[in-house]
Amino acid sequence: MEESLELSNSKKNNEESTVHHDVTRRLKAPYLSGIPLRIMIFMLDYVPGMASFFFWNAGLKALRKLSFEDHPTIFPLPLPKEAFGIEETTVIDGLEIFEKQKDSRPKNYSSGLLGTSDFHEAYLAKRVTPLQVCEALLLKIEETLDVTKCNPPLNAIFKYQRDDIIAQATASTERYANDCSLGLLDGIPIAVKDEVDVKGYETNAGTKFINHGNPAKDDATIIERLKEKGAIIIGKTAMHEIGFGITNNNPFVCTPRNPYNANHYPGGSSGGSGAAVASGLCPIAIGCDGGGSIRIPSSFCGIYGLKTTCGRFSAYGEFAVSGPMAANVDDLALSYYVMAGKDPKDPHSLHQPLPTLHGLYFTNTLSDLKIGVYSAWNKQVDNPAITLALNTYINELKLRGAKIIEIKIPELEEVRLAHLLTIGTELTNTAKRYHHKLHLFSCPTRTNFNLMKLVTASDYITSQQIRTRIMHTLADLFNNQVNLILTPTTAITAPKVHSRSLSFGEIDATITSDTMRFIQLANFSGVPAVSVPAGYDDNNLPIGLQFIAKWYDEATLLRIAKTSEEILGNGRRKPSDKLWFGNYVRKVSENFFGESQVSKL
């Protein structure tokens, strides 16, 4: 059964306070790289009025026509929580849920991707040790960076510390030998985006100079929590320069490749994390998501990625909202649960209800769920395979009892512009501390800096008023009409790598717009969202779908992700043989899975 409703804004709305925009229209813009890009940055740096011309031509002044009465919201915490329908959750031990369900979870090796339970069971059965796994893994990481063995290099995990990894693995091996494992994450290799502090590693944020020679003295809180459960941090993953891009093209550090096709990007800015998981190097990686940087590479690389509620994870020791990226939903849920929760080091994390995994395996019937779809918006894609995948999932969700409700969300164009101006201004302001090294940033990043310097205080305040409006719009939507919103994750599949862009970067506003179309709503409002694999296009590139929930309702997102995993079933495909490295466990032990298991690795 389908129902229809239209949402109104939380405050007064009229024609004069709207940026007129057809949600079915796609942006078209010229592509720049190489010499034309270098000429452009020279003009922006030295020709008066040039930056203002591009700022105006890009439509970034459109918000100046608007006037709102709403108070600005600088940080998207839904306070007071009661006004947004947020209730304190019952204490349910998520790890206990996993232990009870571990024997009933089906094995699915169609994609070749291993999960934490595969490693954990092999360790418990003494078929292999964490030390053996990590020694073999280190050889594979070296191979992914060696152009003579992997051309082009995968460039997913681009820096690692052998001695530290061996020390962690040795400690884990001793715990298993003494039958005192710390749980499901003990001995599990996890990679971390180069935007999150890991003790002993420089947090370079995708540059050659930020924190150069200044390794982190402490772990970020989320890393500390993973280590407390025995996880082995195996290195830092490549990212787009300071997170200011969606492809992960990084001319000054390295550009990772998509495991499904080396001639395509993995997405950004957490592209190295996405490639590390999809290529089989590790079952879990950590990403950050200020503007889709977890969900975009998860979609492009065919894995699961959770952008958490703003404030759900402690931000101590990191640059942005972080979250897990994983080969399967169980690992996504497990790592989320371990990292979530209050932290005195981050005041924004202290307002949250308790994290829970309640309902994770309630997938047979979805009769209690209402899922909103904005059809006109969802059709704004550039690949018919995405529409086909979306419609297939809608039908499957209906068969499980979910109610699909047609919705309209107002002011999406205002949200797009406001998010762009906000994150662009904040990144540009952060870069001011490196004012004497601005020339060391790439041409695309410097272009963004030049444009974002023209954002006025009025632009910024108007943007935060729009944030207030969309938060109230979503609160009304989630409290009164639907539990979830379903969209494509991106309007395209992974874009191609242009060889001429690898030296100086590139600017492609069309690709950026298509990639970001469905992304910004969750970032700007602070609500959580998950990207799930949903099939492949005609070029065997993964397709992702996105579910959005209300603040702190990651449990419902994980439940629908688990349902989506069951819908896809054996439809998940293995990446390209050239960029598949998950067979290293078989080289450690032919009996890794036990005699009763048949592996397709």
TrEMBL record:
Residues 1-21 are annotated as: Disordered. It comes from the Eukaryota. InterPro entries: Amidase, Amidase_CS, Amidase_dom, AS_sf. Residues 147-558 form the Amidase domain. GO terms for molecular function: catalytic activity. Residues 12-21 have a biased composition (Basic and acidic residues). The chain crosses the membrane at residues 35-56. The keyword Membrane applies. The keyword Membrane applies. Belongs to the amidase family. This is 12226_t:CDS:1. It comes from Funneliformis caledonium. The lineage of its organism: Eukaryota, Fungi, Fungi incertae sedis, Mucoromycota, Glomeromycotina.
